Amino acid sequence: MVCRSHPMPTTIAKRADRALPIAARVVAVVATLSVFAACEVVDSKSAASKKSDTAAAPTVVPESARGTVATDSAAVTPVTPADSLRRGVADDTGMVKLYPPEPRRGGVVFALAEGVTAPTPRCTWKSAPTPCYRTSQGTLVTIPLPADEDAGTFTLTIDRPGGRIVRQVTVADHDFGRELIFLTDSLYKKATNTREIARDARAVRGIASVESQDQRWTGRWREPVPGLRSAGYGVERYYYRASDSTRTIALDAQAKTRGTFAGDTSDVPFTGAPSWRHSGLDLPARRGAPVVAPAAGIVVDVGDYILTGRTVLIDHGQGAVSAYFHLDTATVSKGDVVRAGERIGRVGSTGLATGPHLHYAIYVHGKDVDPVAWRDMPQWLLVREDSTRTATR
Asked: Using one digit for the tens of pLDDT, what is the confidence trace for 280-318?
């Protein structure tokens, strides 16, 4: 969602110690709404933080690495050959490409175990099975790191005949910031309609969790509208009536959003302000501007929902689903096969939107990630293959 900025006095006070977690900070926001504005967004991040959120060019990644044997998601130390033999697992000798070199919350980890082409490879992340795919180069694992999951060091395992490849992956923390958004009475009524929100959220999340076996896209992904940038994903947004903008609003240090936008399945009445963590990027564009598919896929949903408005979801295969919210018009139908660059709709302001824009989201195995992090995938993943990739669990 986008709330356009208008000239108005804004003061944001917060602790100077940036090293403390968000939960230890108290954010006080004083906002005065312009008589010509329907709503206003107050961003709790500094200009320096915003600058750091801009997309960076992909960096060179080491081509291979060696690992140790482990069986759980806790941080581990290398085990001795004797330990390995007692466990019945051979020492790890696998070669793995990992990208990016410094993953963080909100991003994606791409891992390719070279030469591991077992018909049914098995992979785990945090001790839980995760989908992995057999390719002509080896076994591919794509790990979503949504903003609502913790940072830390976790274990990725890839089974191979006679052994197991193990990598310790450290996920860095990231401050996504907070925002206050002031809504007209009609929009605020939508934001507090918990029954319909819960119903729609279950539908959207279920569709976004589709796992189809074939990779339908090739090459680097395009922008659905011009101007894709990594700013706004993961931010915690709190919604108030426009009349509340004339008073001081203090966010308690312990305040937490109820879930992700279009992903909250609770139908319990709101206490306090409605709030969600933003699950995608808001891309400003004029009403009626064309929205194109960033990559090839199959349209798996065209619908109208209370928060997301007119919505299109595209399955690109192997757990990758793209979503387009607040459309004025959808120009495709469920079941259509689309090519990269093909028009799928027009920009609008349907649902919980304060002006024309496109909410663009990427889901990996049903979990939302920063669309810029997905777009900036490694070059070795973009090479077209003659053989069909097959998904396994």
From this structure: 999 999 999 999 999 999 999 999 999 999 999 999 999
Q: 81-99+103-171 adopts what CATH topology? A: Immunoglobulin-like (2.60.40)
Residue 364 near residue 221 (C-beta atoms within 8 A): no
Beta bridge partners of 277: 236, 260
CA distance 154 to 229: 28
Q: What is the pLDDT of residues 7-21, one digit of tens each?
A: 333 333 333 343 334
DSSP string across 275-295: EEE--SEEEE--TT-EEE-SS
User: Considering only CA atoms, which of 11, 49, 51 is closest in space to residue 27?
Assistant: 11
Domain 10-55+175-370 listed as CATH 2.70.70.10? yes
User: How far, in Å, CA of 141 to CA of 123, rounded?
Assistant: 8
**How many residues make up the chain in this entry?**
393
Structure-block tokens of residue 199: 């119903």
Peptide bond into 100 cis (omega under 30): yes
335, 340, 345, 349: CA torsion to nearest 10: 120
